Amino acid sequence: MPHEWTIAPEPFDSPVALALWRAYYTEVSDRWYRLHEGRATDSAELEREIAATSGAEFAPPRGVLLIARYADEPVGTAGVHLLDDTTAELNRVFLLAHMRGKGGAVRLVSAAEHHARGLGAERIVLDTRLDLVEARALYARLGYAESTPHNDQMYAQCWYRKNL
């Protein structure tokens, strides 16, 4: 029987969502520190930052957190929330390393765009870092265009926009 992807909303504070948030944050933080300081993230800092970002922006009615499952195993996330009545922001697009290259990221972003439209968004924006080259390539492939900054997030280096 072939394995299938499923993508569905999940509460931002569910055990599955929290475990994937930890995996996401650990990977992007470690990647930054290894690139800039030659080390992994300090464990105290990692715990502090994971705890500081609840994900409440992904709660209905103005947001949604999507969980991707492959063969019923939770393997990824994408979150979308409204910044204003017509602009949604895409965040936390992530797949566990062993699941990359299997089409899950395209499915996650497409599902997030669908949910953004359902929230009333006419456009979707996101930010990322220069070193996250895989993410930047994905967004370009899916029709996102580089844009002016829409936020002042500390680690944001690239901003993208797409009309829905």
Could you please describe the fold and organization of this structure?
The mean pLDDT is 94. A 7-stranded mixed β-sheet has the order 1-2-3-4-5-7-6, with helices on both faces. It has helices spanning 15-37, 43-52, 104-118, 133-141; strands at residues 5-9, 63-70, 73-84, 87-95, 123-128, 145-146, 158-163. It is an alpha+beta fold. The chain has a single domain (5-163), classed as Aminopeptidase. 35% of the residues lie in helices and 29% in strands. Keywords: Acyltransferase, Transferase. This is Acetyltransferase (GNAT) family protein.
Summed up:
This protein has 164 residues and is an alpha+beta fold.
Write the layout of secondary structure elements.
Elements: E1 5-9, H1 15-37, H2 43-52, E2 63-70, E3 73-84, E4 87-95, H3 104-118, E5 123-128, H4 133-141, E6 145-146, E7 158-163
Parallel strand pairs: 4-5
Antiparallel strand pairs: 1-2, 2-3, 3-4, 5-7, 6-7
GO molecular function, one term: acyltransferase activity, transferring groups other than amino-acyl groups
Organism: Nocardia tenerifensis
Keywords: Acyltransferase, Transferase
